Amino acid sequence: MLSLTCKTAIKAVIYLATKMETGEKAGIREIATFINASEHTVGKMLQTLVKEDVINSMKGPNGGFFITGKQKNQSLLKIIHAIDGTEIFQQCGLGLSKCSATHPCPIHDDYKIIRDGFKNMCQQKKISDLLEPVNDGLAYLMG
Amino acid sequence: MLSLTCKTAIKAVIYLATKMETGEKAGIREIATFINASEHTVGKMLQTLVKEDVINSMKGPNGGFFITGKQKNQSLLKIIHAIDGTEIFQQCGLGLSKCSATHPCPIHDDYKIIRDGFKNMCQQKKISDLLEPVNDGLAYLMG
DNA sequence: GATATAAAAGTATTTAAATACTTTTATTAC
DNA sequence: GTAATAAAAGTATTTAAATACTTTTATATC
User: What is this model's ipTM?
Assistant: First the structure.
């Protein structure tokens, strides 16, 4: 459902959030290493997140990417929309282009329940929620 | 989550099931047209479904693809496993290769609930269940 | 058994996502 | 203001899925 880049984005933002406490910025290479992803993919993806105001960046020496306290309260959905677009939770389970309640595919209602459940979960989970288990060593961003 | 080919496969099998009543076989072109998919993709995909005993085929004049009454009682999951493999409902929501209860990603538990719910739905739905609304003109395989 | 039909099988191309590379721009420190 | 640093931006390549094309095999009909 989510693209690989989107999953990478979520991990990168959580990583930035773990750095927030110390006020440190993180560079592309550092982030890519920590979440075990391609530097190039991470670089491009971070650019998008900056444009969409999910995170911030500074160029130059001591520059890098960082996140504010306000941004830490953003939901997972915000990241997903920034990377994979806003249509992602509308799509038909069988790929019909115009699937709807009045022109449903055979699994329309059942799939909608699952898809909406996933969307709700992503809407409720804030970056700050996901950060805690990582900080406590109870959850991981790689491996 | 499911590949495009897998969604095509599900629609193709439902279409074959609608033909079962009359005992007719359906050719690649007919199926592809009815579910609005590429003939080539459909051809290859049907070969896989035959190998995996999800459907049957006969070569030669009056040949084509067909499904038996027993096969009509197969679950969606059977089709999904045949096309996308059996690992598909094990995968981590953030793409970690070794995500587990003892080495979880930050959304492990929440994602597992969604993923297991989807799997259960696919396990419970039989081809025969999905066929009915299509036969009754209440659900569609294209559009 | 020759012919026609339709799937099976094998190979090639296209497409979109992911990854890689290069150049430009902004910022800091000296 | 020069040099160094790091992101931004633009372009190119790789990869895997999807799609397309070609040849072979099995079956039915005459």
Answer: 0.94
